[in-house]
Amino acid sequence: MKKYVLLLIILLAALSDIAAEDNKKIELKLDFPIFDLPYQIEAGRTIGSGFFGSYASMSMNQSMAIAMDTHSALHFGLGKLENILPWEEEIKDTVLIIGNILPVYLFEAFLPFGIGWAGSEFQRSVLSRFGVYSQTPYYTSKGYHISDSALGVFKTNNPVNFVRMLSARPEADTAFVERMQKNIFFYDMSDYSIISPLVSNFFVLSNVGIGLVASYFPSLFQSLTQNINRNEKSEIDRKIVYYPALNWVYDIFRPNEPYEARGIHPSGNGVNRYISWEKLTTEEKRYLEIQGWLSILNFASPLLYGFKSFPIYGNDIIGNFALHHYLTSFGFDVTANAYLKYDIFNMAFTLHNYINYQNYYFALEGELLDFPIRFTDRFGLLLTPR
Predict the structure, then answer these.
(1) pLDDT of residue 378
(2) Model's pTM, two decimal places?
């Protein structure tokens, strides 16, 4: 009986007030999944405090929605200044571009509820799903409050999702770019909205493409890792990883290696968590360099450069496209995305190219976004079958 009551609550929460014509431009689109099941049941057990404790470690979908809302509201608000500032157009444009880029960088690197925070929550959601307690470092100056022994048990019991946790931060950035591109295309969002996905792509490139730089400056990255370790305190105050891509390639090639084999932390307290470039084999370095080159594909979309749509069949059907590269628990995925819009039909199609070290698999994905089902002129349901 409880399951049916919960399903009814979810249905009621999904009912939307469709207050305008279906084809009207949407300047600001905000969204938050109140329930994400069964994840929240599993996270509630890990975090404690019952079901509502799960909101302290949100699902990937929930944290991504908050990051999307934060960045969309930022660009929407700053865009409104365009008609208010009394300056000349050239000065106004320069100020607004800088005013959009700077907070996006801060949200990427430091501030909660932006895409950097969502990347941290992506990592924590993998941990929470499998019973590993953690805290977010974005609310305090401390680390993830997670012990080396907990990470060691997690890797031993579930090496696949341990690797998924390591790839979660760049995954969050790339997923954010993909969702922002959909919003820009389907809802004709603010012109400044392209700044967030562009900045996020550079963060992905700096993370996944670290092998391209480290191969030329290995001593630099070795000294950076040493400095990080030197300034750290107890293990619960540490991060899970620095340079996630280095840790990702190390563990994807060594799924059965005990976590403790990383060695002792230079302080003598705990495990040396952060993999440095010199710890990788030649094979691992080459594989990571390939990922760095592939991450450049994330920039291959007209949507990132102000070209929101192209006519396909007169003005009735419009379209656009994008390419993306994801690190995964088994290797990587290169996606080709096609977006089509016809009247009230918002359609997205994706070709997935799943590649591990030895094999290739493909998958096709189709999605109909926010299709309106009306009950009255002002009340209805938006469906997104995929």
Answers:
(1) 83
(2) 0.88
Please answer whether residues 29 and 58 qualify as being in contact, where contact means their C-beta atoms are separated by less than 8 angstroms: no
Q: For the stretch 230-260, what's the b/e string if a residue is b when 16 or more beta carbons lie within 10 angstroms of its beta carbon?
A: eebeebbebbbbbbbbbbbbbbbbbeeeebb
pLDDT of residue 141: 65
30-53 in b/e burial notation, b at 16+ Cβ within 10 A?
eeebebbeebbebbbebbeeeeeb
- Count of other CB atoms within 10 angstroms of residue 299: 17
Distance CA 200, CA 208 (A): 12
> CA distances (Å), 347 to each of 139, 162, 164, 342, in order?
38, 34, 29, 8
3-state DSSP assignment of residue 336: strand
pLDDT band for position 25 (cuts 50, 70, 90): low
320: which strand partners? 339
Token pair for residue 288? Answer: 């990571």
Long-range contacts of residues 108-112, Cβ cutoff 8 Å, at least 24 apart: 108/199, 108/200, 108/203, 111/138, 112/136, 112/138, 112/139
CB-based contacts of 20, cutoff 8 Å, min separation 6: none
